[in-house]
Amino acid sequence: MQPHASQHDPHGQRNPYAQPGPQHAPGAYTVDPRAQLASGVDQFMTRVNAWMAAGVGLTGLAAYVTSQSTALLEMLFTGGMGWVTIFAPLVFVMIFASRLHKMKPSTAIAVFLAFAVVMGVSLAPIFLIYTGASITSVFAITAVTYSALAFYGYTTKRDLSAWGKFLFMGVIGLVVSGVVMMVMSYGFHMTISPVFFMARAMIGVLIFAALTAYDTQKIKQIYLVNGGAGNLAIIGALTLYLDFINLFLFLLRIFGGGRD
């Protein structure tokens, strides 16, 4: 059988440039790696926010159900048990966050949702302090604010990493001042100045508003470097959940309408 004419010159020498190139089916195309990466980030952040929303929903449900039982409220918020209930979420999240990366994904999800329930139980008194209408309206304000700030953090090209140390110091200040206020109010029955109370709430709103944008960008960047393996989605959900809950609580202290 004679070699194909296109593969040889008239003198019988093989022409290396006559080899057929790769054949593409009509309409075939090469996937743009940048488009693939963008799609992966979108899907990952959607998953993170879906788990965050699930946690917020469970917290709201647990808070409402607990608030409807007088016996349960008396058991959880009187005497020494009241301190346990108030500080349980803080202890829970410190232990959870330190071990989260070592857990199996299914365990991490279960513990995250359990933490959301514990947080909800500790927040049950808000349904006794504020009207249902004000809680609903402030929740809506929080959702809109959170969405706008998260979108900014996700889309901005500005590097927000410089905010980190200042925001961390702000959170520490809020935690310390909150503990001092609780000890003064419940331990020593001292009255806290409404001006100080309102000023702390406003600072809290600013800090957790900034943290929402900062943490969203940070989670996105971690995904771009390491991918979404392991429990990164739950770690991101926990981080944004805490931003949302704290933003809601500080806004509620400013705009919430008290019961008569």
Structure keywords:
single chain, 260 residues, mainly alpha, 0% strand, disordered N terminus
What would your notes on this structure say?
Keywords: Membrane, Transmembrane, Transmembrane helix. InterPro entries: Bax_inhibitor_1-related. This is Membrane protein. It is a multi-pass membrane protein. The protein is mostly helical and 260 residues long. The protein has one domain. The chain is 73% helix and 0% strand. Residues 1-25 have low confidence and may be disordered.
Question: Quick one: how many beta strands?
Answer: 0
Instruction: Report the average pLDDT across residues.
Output: 85
> What percentage of residues falls in helices of 4 or more residues?
over 70%
Distance between the termini: 101 Å
Number of domains: 1
| Rg for CA atoms | 27 Å
What characteristic shape results from the CA principal axes? globular
Number of helices: 9
Task: Determine the strand fraction and express it as a percent band.
Answer: under 5%
List the secondary-structure elements in sequence, H or E: HHHHHHHHH
> What kind of sheet is the major sheet?
none
| Helix/strand structural class | mainly alpha
pLDDT < 50 stretches: 1-25
Transmembrane segments: 48-65, 77-97, 109-129, 135-154, 166-186, 192-211, 232-255
Subcellular location: Membrane
Keywords: Membrane, Transmembrane, Transmembrane helix
Biased composition (Basic and acidic residues): 1-12
